[in-house]
From TrEMBL:
One of its GO terms (molecular function) is rRNA (cytosine-C5-)-methyltransferase activity. It is found in: Cytoplasm. SUPFAM superfamilies: NusB-like (SSF48013), S-adenosyl-L-methionine-dependent methyltransferases (SSF53335). The active site is at residue 389. It comes from Aggregatibacter segnis ATCC 33393. This is 16S rRNA (cytosine(967)-C(5))-methyltransferase. Specifically methylates the cytosine at position 967 (m5C967) of 16S rRNA.
Length: 453
């Protein structure tokens, strides 16, 4: 639960910002400063009332999801583009249009709230423009939308769509799934409850679920707050995407093995490894100290033990030396590699506007460095599971093909997945999940063994 702030505790500047004004500021920082919603929303939490946080999230995530459509509407309503210091007004119009098109807020209330937000944003001189544009849209909505929606819109940047077209005959399925709100998936801790028992607990509180061939996964028909999930605080269940839940199962951890979870934050896969092998010696690594706090919190909630390390996966020697474990070699390594995150766009729609085509080449180079570096610390006959939440071949199948060509002692292993899952593979090398409207996100897996001699 977020903190409640009294008017005495909030600085006057913060008090003046309404939820709509805050949403406009957040969107401006995404579009013009390249900041992510996952950073900006937590920062904004202290500036809005706890009960207004869902509204802020809905507006900000929603605008990023449908941005090109809103931008086309604004072009038809505003004669002169709002640039420079007036960009905040442009973002406020995005907020207003999103509410009118996609939310159940009465039109007059939505317009009034957005118009009033001009004052706290020090853009009071644009009050008339904002009011006029939004009311004109309400009057001419049918005609404007008939033009804007005449052709199917991907709502994605062209460079990304072009890459999808080259790799996937069914590329439109990926686009359609990305444009939906994400489903909520749970991973039941079967050390504490069977899947069916936990499903019964949810049914008792009128929460409908769906099951798949994954032995621990439950899909919720309607998302809910984690506080409402039975046994969440006691570690009985974890929120984790369906396709991400295959990682630990494919790794096949065993008790008493030495296992590295590289790029581990926020810790969902670390805790899953320990559910499957409670007596394994697990090291959870991440390069960002602040993100490791989430790993520690998840381990504590699940009542599990792991060595949590801040370090660069591309330079294992540095942090192993610091730990006094320079001689350690791992039985298994889970490398959830830094990637474009193009498989989880529906959860993070700002990725569409933050990620640039030039980023991919840099990410591919970093992934290759990490693969090479960690391979040296894998025992003979050890297993490395390479994973990304990307749908781009450069980061996935092409990365693994190149690694296999350059690494004589690396061998690709078949993936132990159910037949109904295997038939959905979208990759010739490894396994590529694509996002599914009622299913999991886009994920890639390749399992490698280190041959002896």
């Amino acid at each position: 639960m977020e903190k409640q702030y009294s008017s005495k505790k909030i600085p006057p500047k913060t008090t003046a910002l309404s939820t709509r004004a805050m949403a406009a500021k957040v969107i401006l920082q995404v579009l013009d400063e390249g900041k992510s919603l996952s950073t900006l929303i937590p920062e904004a939490q202290s500036s809005v009332k706890a009960q207004d946080l869902p509204l802020l999230q809905e507006i900000c995530f929603g605008i990023c999801r449908v941005l090109p459509r809103l931008e086309q509407i604004i072009k038809r309503l505003v004669d002169k583009p709002l640039k420079g210091k007036t960009r905040i007004v442009h973002c406020l119009l995005l907020v207003g249009l999103y509410q009118l098109l996609y939310m159940r807020i009465p039109a007059h209330a939505a317009v009034d709230e957005v118009v009033n937000a001009t004052k706290s944003l020090k853009s009071d001189s644009f009050r008339g423009l904002v009011n006029g544009v939004l009311r004109r849209f309400l009057r001419e909505q049918d005609d404007i939308l008939a033009i804007v929606d005449k052709h199917w819109q991907t709502l994605h940047p062209d460079w990304f769509v072009n890459k999808l077209k080259k790799s996937y005959p069914n590329w439109r399925e990926i686009i359609d799934a990305n444009n939906q709100k994400p489903p909520m998936w749970l991973r039941v801790n079967t050390q504490k409850n069977s899947l069916e028992t936990y499903r019964t607990l949810l049914a008792a509180q009128q929460t409908e679920t769906q099951v798949t061939s994954h032995p621990q996964a439950l899909g919720l028909t309607q998302p809910t707050a984690v506080q409402n999930l039975p046994l969440f605080a006691e570690g009985g269940v974890t929120v984790q995407d369906l396709h991400a839940q295959w990682a630990a199962l494919l790794l096949q951890p065993q008790n008493h093995e030495v296992i590295l979870d590289a790029c581990a934050a926020p810790g969902g896969k670390t805790t899953h490894i320990l559910e499957l092998a409670p007596q394994a010696d697990v090291m959870a690594l991440d390069v960002e100290e602040n993100r490791l706090q989430r790993v520690k919190e998840n381990l504590a909630r699940m009542q599990q033990q792991a060595t949590v390390v801040c370090g660069d996966a591309a330079n294992p020697q540095a942090w192993l030396d610091k730990l006094g474990k320079s001689a350690v070699r791992f039985d298994r390594i889970l490398l959830d590699a830094p990637c474009s995150a193009t498989g989880v766009i529906r959860r993070h729609p700002d990725i569409k506007w933050l990620r640039k085509e030039a980023d991919i080449k840099q990410l591919v180079a970093l992934q290759g460095q990490i693969l090479d570096a960690l391979w040296h610390y894998l025992k003979p006959n050890g297993v490395l599971l390479y994973a990304t939440c990307s749908v781009l071949a450069e980061e996935n199948s092409q990365q693994i093909e190149r690694f296999l060509q350059n690494t004589p002692d690396a061998q690709l292993l078949p993936l132990d997945l159910p037949p109904d899952v295997l038939e959905r593979n979208q990759s010739a090398v490894g396994f590529q999940f694509i996002p599914q409207i009622d299913g999991g996100d886009g994920f890639y897996y390749a399992k490698l063994v280190k041959r002896q001699g």
